[in-house]
Write a structure and sequence with these properties.
Elements lengths: L1 E6 L4 H13 L3 E4 L11 H14 L4 E7 L3 H7 L7 E3 L3 H11 L3 E5 L5 H13 L6 H17 L2
Parallel strand pairs: 1-2, 1-3, 3-5, 4-5
């Protein structure tokens, strides 16, 4: 599985920390920026780059996006077909989102998440399989049908 990373200046330190964490865990990743700390950059540039990549291969890839609140990057990434983005504040929340909703993009809030907590949240996000119970499948089918209506 390929992991795409993107962050603005507020999320830059977490993104850089996560790159080392993911590398130590053996994950293949692509950093879509920003590649330097630039106080004047804008989160939509990086979240859209991640959203596009995950949208192109939503079953084979995942994304991690970071900004100050986490909300902006989640909103942007979620605009792309096949992307299900979630802002997670804990490993338990990331676990539930993966299991219940098969999310494929994780948004983190740099203003409220420490480096070690970010790594724990990412670990839960990447290691949790999608639930196989009928209720999860039924709900995901409804989401896919809504996307089909919206992205005709």
């Amino acid at each position: 599985m390929l992991i795409y990373l993107g962050a603005d200046h507020r999320g830059f330190a977490i993104k850089e920390h996560l790159k080392q964490f993911l590398k130590s865990q053996g994950y293949e990743m692509v950093d879509l920026g920003n590649s330097v700390l630039d106080e004047n950059d804008d989160y939509p540039d990086f979240a859209s780059a991640v959203g596009r990549k995950v949208s192109a291969a939503p079953m084979e890839s995942r994304g991690i996006v970071v900004c100050g609140s986490g909300a902006g990057v989640a909103i942007v990434a979620d605009k792309f077909p096949g992307v299900r983005a979630v802002l997670a504040a804990s490993g338990d929340q990331a676990y539930d989102a993966r299991r219940d909703d098969d999310v494929n993009v994780l948004a983190l809030a740099a203003n409220f998440t420490g480096l070690e907590d970010a790594a724990k949240i990412v670990q839960a996000f990447l290691s949790t399989p999608t639930g196989t119970e009928d209720r999860y499948r039924r709900r995901l089918q409804k989401i896919v049908a809504i996307e089909g209506e919206l992205y005709k």
